[in-house]
Amino acid sequence: LRLAGMPVKVLASNNRQGGASDAETVANFAGNQFQQADADNNDYLDATEFMQLRGMLQTIPLPDVEFAGIDANGDGMVQLAEVKSYAQTNAGLAEATLVLTVSDDAKTLFDILDANFDFRLSPREFLEGSIRVRKYDHDKDGRFGPSEMRSEFALRVSRARPQFLNQQRQNPAAMQAAGIPRISPSTSGPTWFRRMDRNQDNDVAWREFLGERADFDRIDADKNGLIDLNESTATD
C-alpha cells in the first residue's frame, strides 16, 4: 500500500510450518536437561538438583521460579512431567502474542557493497561493487542516484517466539540487523596464505604480502591486485 505517496509493504509471516510447536520444542529441551540434572537417576529432582537445572535453563525461563512453583502436587519432588509442563506453558505464553515490527528495508551504499555482512569493505567488495549496485539502477540510466535509495518501509506481523529459540536460530540477515559482524577467516589453502591474510577477508592484498612484488604479480593470475584462495593453491 502507499501512505502519503510512500510505498509500504505489509507482511504476515507464518513462522511455524509443520513439525512440533515452539512450546513442544522448548518442553522437550527442558526434559533433556532434566535428565542431566537428575544426578542420582531417581527420576525426580530434589532442591539441590533443581537449582542446578535452573542454572542450565536460564533462557526458558526457569530462574524466576522457586522449587515449590514447579512442584505442582507438593510432594517435595520435581518430576519430569512438572518441568516439561512448566516450560511448555511459559513458551505457550510467547506463542500467544502477536508482534508488529516496523522497519525501513532500504539499503545504504555501504550495505550493498558489504556482501558478506562483516561490516567492513574489502578491496574485492570495492572491485565487484558495480555489479551489485547495478540492480538498484531502477531507471536504467547508468547512474546511481539518491532517489534510487528511497526508504522501503515494511510492517511485519508474526507470532512471537520464545527467547530460547530466537537465540538458537540466528541467520546472516538477523546478525546484520543486530549489528553482529560475521567474519569467516579461511580455513583452507596454503599456510602462508592464511597467515598473510591479516584482515581475514579471504584475499591477500599487496600490502599484506610479505614477499617480493614480482612474486605477488606472478601469483595474482587475474591481475586484479588480490591473491585469492584458488590462486594461492595453484601456486603452492
Describe the structure.
This protein is α+β, with helices and mostly antiparallel strands and 236 residues long. It is 40% helix and 14% strand. A 4-stranded mixed β-sheet has the order 1-2-6-5, with no helix packed on it. It has a two-stranded antiparallel sheet with strand order 3-4. A two-stranded antiparallel sheet has the order 7-8. The protein is flat, with a radius of gyration of 26 Å. It starts with a strand and ends with a helix. The mean pLDDT is 79.
In short:
The protein is built from twelve helices and eight strands. The strands form three sheets. The protein has a four-stranded mixed beta sheet, with no helix packed on it. Strands 3-4 form a two-stranded antiparallel sheet. Helix content is 40%, strand content 14%.
Indicate the overall shape: flat
Reported for the largest beta sheet, the result is: 4 strands, mixed
**Secondary-structure content class:** alpha+beta
Strand content: 5-15%
Radius of gyration: 26 Å
* Contiguous runs where pLDDT drops below 50 for at least 5 residues: none
Please tally the helical runs, counting DSSP H or I stretches of 4 or more residues: 12
Strand order of the largest sheet: 1-2-6-5
> Helix share of residues?
25-40%
Q: Write down how many β-strands occur, each being a DSSP E stretch of 2 or more residues.
A: 8
Helix-strand sequence: EEHEHHEHEHHHEHHHEHEH
In whole angstroms, the N-to-C terminal distance is 57 Å
Mean residue pLDDT: 79
